[in-house]
Amino acid sequence: MPYVSVGAENSGTIDLFYEDRGSGAPVILVHGYPLDGRSFEKQSAALLGAGYRVITYDRRGFGLSSQPATGYDYDTFAADLNSLLDHLDLDDVALVGFSMGTGEVTRYLGTYGCGRVSKAVLLGPIPPFLLQTDEKEGVPQSLFDGFIAAVNGDRPAFMTGFLNDFYNYDVYKGSLVSEERFQASWNTATAASAVAVAACIPTWLTDFRDDLPKIDVPVLVMQGDQDRILPPPYTGDLLPGLIKDLKHIRVEGGPHAIIWTHADQVNEALLDFLN
């Protein structure tokens, strides 16, 4: 299995697992919390079928990648992504992020520039800045503090509740989301590093507003209008005007996990944008 080394911790290396399949124009898919690169299976199939080279990888702490105790911040996540780009020597690549992965894409472009990137896609975005402050509406700090307490108290139970809102399972159970799919996601989530699962939560409050004006490639933003994890009024709805060249699509009835529940609609828009 292929790995790229992105650092070291004590006596061991920190390695990211990746898959590099197909040929043609390269597309890197950056997964969301609390899953791994396999969560893009429906997008990977569509992209491979359309003749793209598809690269997925597991964020540090998740999937088959190393599970270090440190490095859970967006500067490090972006550096990890940059290491993968360097390792594969990629140019003219499309970066596609989902959920937490949209932070990697945004911070990468803000830090390393767009020289190696042709287009970017933000699915269920976390930018520009989720936190409620005295100056702006948003999600209160207390909610995230509660998440961390819940993870530290009973991580498997937290994952059940989180995935309920991830899929809007109360609405789509048995129709767009099978019990087996939910269980598979839960299995992936609970196999992730306990350290990473807790440490990633504060990163959702990262302020990306300085990164966004630096993005000078076309960007597609796509989000479910029933997203309970990253509510559109505090995330995707704020991005028009902050990114120079942006196409914004709202998915009617879509939960956070539109890459699964509304995969046909997502894939059609994704392929149209990349083409």
UniProtKB/TrEMBL annotation:
Residues 26-263 form the AB hydrolase-1 domain. This is Bromoperoxidase. InterPro entries: AB_hydrolase, AB_hydrolase_1, AB_hydrolase_fold, Epox_hydrolase-like. It comes from the Bacteria. Keywords: Oxidoreductase, Peroxidase. It comes from Nocardioides conyzicola. Signal peptide: none annotated.
